[in-house]
Write a structure and sequence with these properties.
single chain; about 525 residues; mainly beta; 34-stranded antiparallel β-sheet; two-stranded antiparallel sheet; 1 helix; about 5% helix; disordered N terminus
Amino acid sequence: MVEINSSGFLVKNAYIRHLFYVIIILCFAPSVYSQDLTAPPSTRKKIELKNADVDDMLKDPLTGKDIHHLLGNVRLLDEDVNMWCDSAYFYPDKNQVEAYSKIHIEQGDTLNLFGDYLFYDGKSKIAFVKGNVELIDKETHLYTDSIHYDVRNRIAKYTERGRITNAKNTLTSIIGVLYVSENLFHFKDSVKIVNPQYVMTADTMDYNTVSEIAYFTGPTELKGDSLYLYCEKGWYDTKKEVTSVWKKSMIDNRKQIIHGDSLFFNDSTGYGESFRNVIIEDTINKIAVKGNYAWYYKQPERFFVTNRAVFIQISQKDSLFLHADTIKSITRSDTTGKVYRLMRAYYGCRIFSKDIQAKCDSLSYSFQDSVIRLYRAPVIWTEEDQLTSDSMAVFTKNRQTDRLELYNNAFIASQVDTTRFNQIKGRSLTGHFRNNELYKINIKGNGEILFYLLDAEAVVGVEQSKCADIEILFTKGKVSEIYEHESPEGFIDPPLPLTPVRFDGFKWLDNLRPKKRDDIFNK
């Protein structure tokens, strides 16, 4: 409604509102939006009126310039931009439009912008639209309360929370910028993507509406039925379900929890890779594997770790640490179809725990029977004793050593002093443990004993004997009793100070023993 007072001055609420929105536009429009006003006036494009009835001709009370009041299916054209509305005020001198009701802006073949109110500046090419705003670009729909649209650069921005739908994704944020020509959204503050399979939240995110790839910085979480992800930088392909993340990155695929400086994971195939400071955790079996490179599959579950690879069997009392050049884990099935994990370690294996240490070239660990099998020059140390053989097996129960078996050329040595060593050898050996402490050894076949007798730590004699089988009992890690079975023969002599006795096959390898956890990396 237009009123003219007795002095002939024009009074209209719409004009006051227009001035208010002009101020808003000038405050929010960046310098890059400004038109080159040094161009000759003849080259500047003017807004054209199309199919509009001029309801009234008014005068601007400040400038005295004409104002066109337009009504009924108003259409305006500015180069490649079409604008429709129910009514509008057009300011030819300023090349500006203020429009109301059923606002529709169309640019090109794909972009449409709707709302309840429009202020458009034909010089700066900036449109401000508010009230039930909807922007449509191809398959992308943006809903917000108000939006600034840079027509020249095809950039739309909202600052009062927006919602975007694209394919199966719904994205919300406080601040958003759409770069139409690049099919790219930039989101800031309380960013959230909702997909039927997951929900992603982030501080800052870029989203490509064509590739459907999200790029994020700052604390980011993705939660789904089969995947949880955290990082502070990375990208996620929502179409292919592929992600690459780094900076405090972590992925939980419900089978494993994977940490690393950078992670790659394909949720559709269950394949992933990790680089530097890698940790793969199995919280069900209470094991973890560390290294600087790893690949892994979710189903069937398997992994490969190398570069300072460490396997950890977690226990409250005494965790076991195994280092090797390469550690692998695969999934197998037994004859009944029951699935179990088989882990293998290659080259330069070292094991450390508080009660037992070991080294060998390679080993395997079956989760079916909880047995560690050591191959190629294996050595095990427990308390004061060193055990060697051609191959070995360590049987565990409830994450503690239960039994130790040495196959072929079994040999036990313990140091008495700098030159003397107790020695026991035979064809095979079985060691029994209680609370992770060795308390009994049985030697089968071709048993031989060389044992120094002590009195107040002084050597007073040496016992040498042979028999088919030997049973040795230990108390607090020291030999307390020896039983010889089946045709024993032997003797006890005074110690020979100058010529210490060595059985065939004797070797003292204490310099290779890991005496603390970090020693497993020693070569």
